[in-house]
Automatic annotation (TrEMBL):
Identification of the protein by name: Hydrogenase expression protein HypE
InterPro entries the UniProt entry points to: Cytochrome-c3_hydrogenase_C (IPR027394), NADH_UbQ_OxRdtase-like_20kDa (IPR006137), NiFe-Hase_small_C_sf (IPR037148), NiFe_Hase_small_N_sf (IPR037024), NiFe_hydrogenase_ssu (IPR001821)
Domain NADH:ubiquinone oxidoreductase-like 20kDa subunit: 22-189
Keyword Calcium: no
Binding partners and assembly: Heterodimer of a large and a small subunit.
One Pfam entry name: Oxidored_q6
Gene source species: Saccharopolyspora cebuensis
Cofactors named for this entry: [4Fe-4S] cluster
Amino acid sequence: MTERDRGLDEVHVLWISEGMSCDGDTVSVTAAAQPPIEDVVAGLVPGLPTVHLHNKVLSPTVGGEEFLAPFRAAARGELGPFILVIEGSIPNEKINGEGYWTSFGNDPETGQPLTLNWWIDRLAPRSWAAVAIGTCATNGGIHAMAGNPTGCMGLADYLGWDFTSSGGLPIVNVPGCPVQPDNFMETLTWLLHHAAGSAPPPPLDELLRPQWLFGKTVHEGCDRAGYYEQGDFAGDYNSPKCQVKIGCWGPVVNCNVPKRGWMGGIGGCPNVGGICIGCTMPGFPDKFMPFMDMPPGGSLSSMMVKPYGAFIRRMRGITNRTVNTEPKWRHNREALTSGFDPAWRP
């Protein structure tokens, strides 16, 4: 049996957050609970290989060359197997003039900064799996919006959407601004189970996102969706009703945050009064601005549902009052009036 057939006993996670980003995805993942990242690293999740995490925020090293050592070893082909996690947009270093857009460590021989692109070129082909965490890494995000001077893009735009890792896997995209913590850890855990030989590859959609996480829209899991059906819309951000008219893109955005919550099942943008601005989508942010304006089509859809919704709301109100009334046979009088009449009664 090959090593791939019998599974891996040990995996390194090389996490580079030197893309154009705010490190928000790293911070977000520290709140994960299904499972917590510390449980994965500590070996408390049954069936997983031993995991060595190399992340600048979560690293126990003092930084510098001590922290860079496993990355340099992997670039030389001396460390493996490893999962490469990229956080942040990938800039186009072909248009950087005489400088560079972003870097990660220096070249030991010249002392010059090594660009993120330099690392991706050397690490991605050798990685057992390549994962883009957060919308910046998956599709470019904020830094790739119209008018940016850096030519930023997502990892799949840089490597090619048909890229395959040494483990035979396509890029795995887990979008979010920042990523929902449990979405990422659940995906990473699935990959680790696959690495151990105990699970198939995670199912991905055409945009390389985990299908089970991004197969439904915000609207389908939203606490406020019932108000939309009843044509009952919020006029301001203090209302608990559907927020389509005040800027929510939930009906057309693929995201599970309203259903999953943010931490411990609590939170999620529309659940706590925030509109959905489409931060998990490839067209973010350009196609969703201005964020506080009603989305195109929102006016038509809300107008069409309003007469139907008003009628349904009225009928449900009548039924609600009916079922809020106790049956008349519940009384303390001497006669039984419930309709109970057994056949054997004389």
